[in-house]
Amino acid sequence: MKQRSPAVFQWLVIVVLMFPAASQAQSGSQEPEVLTVVTWGGAYEDSQRRAYFEPFTEATGIDIETVHYDGGVKVLREHLASGDVEWDVIDMIQSDASAACEEGLLDTIDSTILAPAPDGTPAREDFMEGAIHRCFITQIVFSTVIAFDDRAFPGVKPDSVEDFFNLEAFPGKRALRKSPVGLFEWALLSLSVPREQLYDLLSTRRGLELASRRLDDIRDAIIWWTRGDEPVELLTSGQATMATGYNGRFFHARAMEGAPLSVIWDGQLIGFNSWTILRGTSQADLAADFIAFATRAENMAAQANLISYGPARKSAQRRVGLHTDAGVPMRPYMPTAPSHMDSAVIRDHHWYSQTVELREQWFREWLER
Amino acid sequence: MDRKGIQQIVYQISTVTVLAIIVGTAASLAAIGFVDAVHYLNDRLLISPYARVLAEDRPGFVAVATLLVPAAGGLVVGLIVHFLVREKRGLAPPDAILAAQTSGPAPGFGSGLASTLAALISLGSGASVGQYGPLVYLGAMFGNLAGRLRLNLRHQRSIAIACGVAAAISTAFNAPIAGLVFAHEVILRHYSLRAFAPVTVAAATGYIIANVIFDRPALFLVSFDRVEHSYEFVFFALEGVLCAGLAWVFMVLLKVSANVARRHIALPWARPAIAGLTVGLVALWIPEVLGIGQETLRFATIEGAFGIGELGLIIVAKLVLTALCVGFGFVGGVFSPALLIGILFGAFYGLVLPYVAPVPHSGLVVYAICGMMALASSVIGAPLTTILIVFELTRSYDLTIAAMVSVVFANLISYRVIGRSLFDLQLRARGFDLSLGRDKAILETHRIRDYLSSVFTTASDQDTVGTVRQRLVDDHRSEAMVLNRKGKLLGVVRLQGIVNSNAETPVMDAAIRSFTTFGEDTSVWQSMEMLRGFLGEAVPLVDRSGRLMGVVPEEAVIRAYLEIVHDLREEENEAA
């Protein structure tokens, strides 16, 4: 008896342990339990994982898988054309979302899913203006900024967009995103065009030509990047002395990893990221549930306490405090901090969404000439 | 001071202040609405580069719009002006000046609205005309309306008009001091405290509404450190002189264009459409000519945005097309085109200068701004205003001083060659000549007929010298008017000429046949001129058919002059 009882016990344990797994597997065959979120990787995705994905799985039992994305509308088109729609929720730049919406690539989102602020303020009043759209819900304010390797400039430090184009005073390679985004704004800003007039001037041939010629000044010094985590690598490895990149990544590298880099807030290009649902997904309702969960004020604040992107709703902004791990106060690192807004360029997402072709053509031509 | 006097003063000051605030608010809101509506139309009608680039994927559509929108706009403008504006032309700053200077009837509110609508469509559809002229008139229109209220204020109409104009300019340029000075320099032409105080209030109101309530962006933003070399002031002065030349060319082109339109196109309402079609055709090749050209204005201050040849081409195209649009009857001003042509010319000058004078200079911006202000000030005859616009928009002392030098030299030349301004030229063509100052112009608007006396001695052409002599002695006069049976004046008989004549001589033999007469339309100024060398008692005034209507004694002419000039001096020296 003494010898058999452990075996019985083992069996019992195995059966007991197996049962819930079996039942889960069974229910899984009826209802999918994995939601696919398309997002940007790196420190940014980590912050989303901790603030949204893990709590969501905990609350609902539904796992979240991520697919890497570097922006743009083309990949959505291609994914839909493949016929096998696996993506559910996409974290898109607002101008891309707007363009994709017009192309009919996105599902509509019922804004009534959005939870009111904890104090009862309706979501429509709590979110930033223009954040709630039939195709997207804007969630964060991010910024593309210029950062530099502190070690490269032991004397005078660069502090303006103009310095980015000044290879004489601040020599070294410049890392830029290989995409017709931001390049022309900075080119004109460096010629002291006021930010209010940027997009009016860029709407003319002359404006684009002027930007091209300005970029020619640094052409030979450019290193292109595509993935959001590359600028930090290029700077820390010493390959580039100045780089453009997302402010949250630079914050993470500086504050969390102690990388020797500094951010120039002059000419920061403010953009917005929005949650969207891909048209044709079989899990549209689940995707909407996720968006409703991820846009709750306390969850948005939790993300902002991990990475320095500003939440798009006021009740969440008020909850931003110290970094969850490092204890650094987060507010001064937000792109929306008042001192950073003086020279900020708010990206004209309407202009961006309507000039996709033009920008790409301009970029191709400039690269080839 | 007695109690009634104090009450009167309190009433005056408070009424005039409230009036200024109301007129200022109305003019400022209207100006903002007007400018926004122009932007809206420009976006909708694919005139603004921003709108054009958004339609980039349909190049054929953009080309068709470029060609047709200004032409269609021109047709609508032509019809509105022809059928809805009583004056059959766009109302402009000269009308505001005239309404402020004289007490005659001003264009009605309905005409004003129709003219403003025509201006809106002109600017909205991309005609090469300016927005400030219509804005000035819009301000004047509200002022004129307020001028009709029975508030028992002296010079109420002119002050109210100045208030409206000041607020409109203050709002449009975001420059209250320039608005204030413009109203005095161009509209009122004097600086009395009575007008100065309410106009300041109105300009401040315009500024507050533009800035605080609506938060409008500035018209142009440039950054400039300082003039590096003192010898550059010589270049600024020279630039001013060249700009005066350009202003002269501009005025000549305007005149030629208006003449061509009158002579060769019989239907007045079709003229703007033809100008619009031309603008569209040129815009297919040079899109910079469309509309106000905010972007082009900006590029002119950026080194490397234009080549020298390109600049020359755009300057010529813009000059010719602006003259064409204005001359052919599009409704709009000349100030914004002058600003644009001026800044392009300034940039051109700045680019050419290093080849002519190979010495270091302070960069393009300062030359561009100097050119802009020098040309514009010559055209509208407002040197102080333009200097202040630079100061208020750039807040740069160095830039203002540089512009000041150019502006002054431009005006020194243009005043001699052209006259004070385009407005004054247009007014002179309408018979209101301000070139010798307000006195002459105002004296010209008063008819001497108003001082007519009906007390005089007449004689019939059948009378004898004896009868007339006796009549003059009885009447205690020395002059008799000889009339025929129909009352037509045939001559004048003077007592000293017939004292010793034979009593039986027919009076006509003794009458003076060549003598000074006034007509129905003779102005006070003309009557003064005609009195030079006059020896008689009174000047007969005859109607168009030569019939005697009465006489104007010499004393009455002097009285008329004194009264009018006294009124002017009083207006100019009044305290609040």
Automatic annotation (TrEMBL), chain A:
It holds the Pfam family SBP_bac_8. It comes from the Bacteria. Residues 1-25 form the signal peptide. Keywords: Signal. PANTHER family: ABC TRANSPORTER SUBSTRATE-BINDING PROTEIN, SPERMIDINE/PUTRESCINE-BINDING PERIPLASMIC PROTEIN. This is ABC transporter substrate-binding protein.
Automatic annotation (TrEMBL), chain B:
It is found in: Membrane. PROSITE patterns: CBS. The chain crosses the membrane at residues 12-41, 61-85, 159-183, 195-214, 234-254, 274-293, 305-331, 337-357, 364-391, 397-418. It holds the Pfam family CBS. Residues 511-568 form the CBS domain. This is Chloride channel protein. The keyword Transcription regulation does not apply. Its main location: membrane. InterPro entries: CBS_dom, CBS_dom_sf, Cl-channel_core, ClC, ClC-type_chloride_channel. It comes from Marinobacter iranensis. It is a multi-pass membrane protein. CDD domains: CBS_pair_SF (cd02205), Voltage_gated_ClC (cd00400). It comes from the Bacteria. Keywords: CBS domain, Chloride, Chloride channel, Ion channel, Ion transport, Membrane, Transmembrane, Transmembrane helix, Transport. Gene3D superfamilies: CBS-domain, Clc chloride channel.
